[in-house]
Amino acid sequence: MLVTVGAAWLIGSRRPKRRMAGFFCFVLSNILWVAWGAGAGAYALIVLQVCLCLMNLRGFRKTFQAQ
Fold it and tell me: What is the sign, positive or negative, of the torsion defined by CA atoms of 48, 46, 4, 24?
């Protein structure tokens, strides 16, 4: 959860390097949530995290296409 909160803080930065770090932290948090969900048998959480990860990657791609 702390990685997710840190990622949200970074993604709101005006500095491009911090925003990029935020994207990577979000992806890391998705991976960590999936690992936790797999251990807990929380399959809906796993599906949610996969969808959120795809949306994060889409945002990452759109950010760099706009430059």
Answer: negative
pLDDT tens by residue, 28-47: 999 999 999 999 999 999 99
Q: Which residue has the tokens 């992806």?
A: 27
Mean pLDDT in residue range 45-52: 97
Identify which has the larger pLDDT, 56 or 33. 33
- Contact predicate 11/22, CB 8 Å: yes
Contact in structure between 30 and 49 (CB atoms under 8 Å): yes
Q: Which residues contact 59 (CB under 8 A, 6 or more apart)?
A: 23
Domain boundaries, the chain: 2-65
Cα-only R_g, the chain:
13
Q: Are the C-beta atoms of residues 34 and 42 closer than 8 Å to each other?
A: no
